[in-house]
From TrEMBL:
The organism's place on the tree of life at top rank: Eukaryota
Organism: Nicotiana tabacum
Protein name: DNA repair endonuclease UVH1-like
Amino acid sequence: MAQFQEHIITELLEDSNGGLVVTSAGLGLHKIISSLFLLHHHSQGCLLILSATPSQKASILRTYENVTQSQISDEVQNSPAEITSDLPANQRLSLYSSGGILFITSRILIVDLLTRRLPTTAVAGLIVLNAHLLSDTSTEAFIVRILRSTNRDLYVRAFSDRPHSMVSGFAKAERTLKCLFLRKLHLWPRFQVYVSQDLERDPPEVVDIRVPMSTYMIGIQKAVIEVMDACLKEMRKTNKVDVEDLTVENGLFKSFDEIVRRQLDPIWHTLGKRTKQLVSDLKTLRKLLDYLVRYDAVNYLKYLDSLRASESFRSVWIFAESSYKIFEYAKKRVYHFGRSDSGKLGQIKTASTKKRKLNDNKKDEDQSTSTENRVVLEEVLEEPPKWKVLLDVLMEIQEERDKRALSGEEKDHLDEGDDNGIVLVACKDEHSCMQLEDCITNGPQKVMREEWEKYLLSKVQLQALPKRNAKKAKELKGFGVLDGVVATAGKKAEVSSISKQEHDALLAAASEISKRINKDTNAEAGDQKHVDDGGFGKGKGKGKKKKSSAGEKTNNDVASTDKAMEGGFSDEVFLRKHDQGLDAESSSETKKLPPVVFYALESDQKILDILKPSTIIAYHPDIAFVREVEIYKAENPLRNVKVYFLFYEDSTEVQKFEASVRRENGAFESLIRQKSLMMIPVDRDGRCLGLDSSNEPQSVISQNLITRKAGGRREAEKEIQVIVDMREFMSSLPNVLHQKGMRIIPVTLEVGDYILSPLICVERKSIQDLFGSFASGRLYHQVEMMSRYYRIPVLLIEFSQDKSFSFQSASEIGDDVTPNSIISKLSLLVLHFPRLRIIWSRSLHATAEIFASLKANQDEPDEVKAIRVGVPSEEGVIENDVRAENYNTSAVELLRRLPGVTDSNYRVLMDGCKSLAELAMLPMERLAELMGGQKAAKMLRDFFDAKYPTLL
């Protein structure tokens, strides 16, 4: 552990209540938390860890195991356990009482606290990870509020390594402290004195390699930035977004999409389609810049093909002035297409002139039979420039080690730093790791050829899939595979965008590759059969079976390709292969490379302490990984660590890395200013009072205003109860209801989500859930069950507080009743269930106020009765019970359809007679008394007494 990490722990332990720690990314929070585990003793109570991601949990447990194994202690440390929903209540209770360290989800913990399975005094402290995700309505804040109310000695230690997320919104850091009932904010940026001293005392040797991009890559990057700038200019014209945030530099980060959406969400229903599409386009353009430096040329072209087919009908960026360069340059990185005249490759035509020229050439073909005039598809297969540089770096590392071994220095290095010779290559994702490993093993040319063949064969397989009929194809807007069939409209879009002849030429080239693979597969199968006949090896038959199945698949692909091309392509296609020559494939065989391990940064696994590499290559530099390398070197000062950074020169990759450093420093500067100005209310003991402290004095004064009754003595308050379904604790509404002073009773309900009184049952739906429930038919069944068992069924439609309080934009509301319209579905639901009440709520706090007003002058709900509602019983019909068997729903439905029976009198009729047979025998006077009038009674009596018509 580094010294600054010990300082963080010491500073955190000074306050017995705990604190909030915000660090720079990559400063080893998992080591700090595992050290806090060592300081915990089971006699203090249990230590609960909340909001840990799976990768964080794995890193913390691995570090804790390594530390406990290295320490010699008489007392055996209890390893942390995990509480999941699979554990029954009695096992959870035994784990709570053991006083151990427990990883637990917030949903399970809040239910156990409310049901009193977990006594608050049994909890010694909480460790909350990812504190930047907390808010006053989050379940973690709910948990802390309950624990703080009864356990004054509880400590809460919260951590975050996302400083830029802690400055989003108004006073985010201050509100986070209040919702956790904390006073101390501990800031540990990279430029903090202790951190910089530790990491810069013995830094690793760094080699910064700037790789020049290819000409086409430069062209694509320039074109994407121009298109992004054009989209941002269009966005600025709306005058509805903060202009300062709309910069290309901010557009490189993933959080940019969230910033723009956060500003536009409250007015989303007022925006036009063009503005909404611009938000989506900016996200697409950011991905294009990111993928340009991450993926090879063939995969980049494949991604562009999918974009061109799926977004060409609605995207704004595709119609920008420079967008055609993106597609043109991406295609030129992979292949050139043209017509050779007298053996020379023709110039590649632009998209505007290509179609006309090809039509002219087709007329010439009818008049001429020359074999020299043919279509040429020339492979280019441009390799990513970083591939060659990576191979060169690996060879250089091996050459240095060989020289050191010859001079006798290697032994000294092994003795000093325990050098295992591993070279760690850090990439962004798993795909890049696998591709680079293949590149080192087989050579760059072979990898690019395999990707090229996959690209062509994917076109063959797409062509072979069954087509939709013409009527359905007109409704489609896109290209791709939908439910196993090809969208015909999308096919037309692709063919028109790259010309029919070019598309057919690609299919013809794919057909040649398919035939070659089929031929090789058959030859291997024949050889395999010969080996099996000779009696070699018992397990050879399995390989034979696998090969034959692959061959059958290829035969189908070839046959479908030939069938697809019948009559569609009459020219002879000449595939000119890329000249490989002597490349790295042959040189890698002759030159030895060091042992290489690839690591995906997106996996977020801390492996430096496990692998202990001597050389690290940051193929995709990341600011958090850089800090991890610095800490690794600071903790191992005797180990010689050399780090290579591979950047594309003058690329957005460099710009994004530098901007991330500036953004983090700016976030910490803002937090430092906030820390000097924030006001945290405390009680007499110096403990934080939380977010609701300002409301408490007012509530006491309002209670004491009644001075005429008992000399101003406070009346005994009636406890307000709300029965909540267990599944509802995924939302924040129970937390807000608890803030309003209501007692939450968590149970498993068969009918409804919230029971406010014996009469009122509420089914809560968010907007997204409402659409899904209508589509699946689940909402109809839920409302039917509520109407059966409760007198006042309520459908609550709840909006998000930071989004527009508008169900649909005005342009989306039609005049006619259509089965696809959500307004029509709601209208039909209300017509079918007349007693259903629909409540619209604009936020969680508005819902809490609505619930409070609905509960006014109502009895409190019965927990036992609410649990039994709708549950089938084994005993059958029980007197005065509310189970399903006690309701003859078919008889009730028949009663409500009788003439003269209305919603106002059918319940009186049910109370006045026991069956339909008894109803039919009631005299006229009794019917009039029950139905509230002679007219309704006469209609029902005439219906009962009417004779059947005589059959002639």
